[in-house]
Amino acid sequence: MAYSNCSDMEGCQTFVFLRIGASHFRSVKFSDIVLIESDQPRKLKIYFKNESDIKSEVIRKTLSKISDELPNCFWRINRKTIVNSKHVNTVSDKFDYVQVGSLLLDVGPSFRSKLRAILNVLE
Question: Where does the HTH LytTR-type domain start and stop, copy by copy (predicted)?
Fold first, then answer.
């Protein structure tokens, strides 16, 4: 089942410019971003699909800030993680986890109702 709810497919194909380091910028398609996680304040790790593997880049931004800038095909599933719905393989029946590739990621209690609402719209 495809879980993508990106109503604006062109929006998911547009590029985002990531600032990596002091002066290096990189252009990445939204559709290539698999997930974004925050381990430390103002430090995000962005995992993206690059040909056959997944690589990561670290940028200095808050998860809340970048969440507001992403198209609607990205789901915030807990306080530390945003996933691209195009890369979600499975959502559990109780909406307590999602599977992205071989990773099982917990959905936070306060984010389950939002995820349920998104998926009800897709049916």
Answer: 23-120
CB within 8 Å of 12: residues ≥ 6 apart: 4, 6, 29, 30, 31, 71, 73, 86
Q: For residues 5 and 118, is the Cβ–Cβ distance under 8 A?
A: yes
Say how far apart CA 20 and CA 24 lie, in whole Å. 5
Rounded to a whole number, what is the distance in angstroms from the first to the last CA of the chain? 11
pTM of this prediction exceeds 0.85: no
Quickly name the fold that domain 9-122 has: OB fold (Dihydrolipoamide Acetyltransferase, E2P) (2.40.50)
The span from the CA of 83 to the CA of 64, in Å, is: 13
Question: Tens digit of pLDDT for each residue in 80-116?
Answer: 999 999 999 999 999 999 999 889 999 999 999 999 9
CA distances from 20 to 17, 25, 27, 45, 74 (A): 9, 6, 10, 11, 21
d(CA 26, CA 40): 22
* Other Cβ atoms within 10 Å of 83 Cβ, number: 26
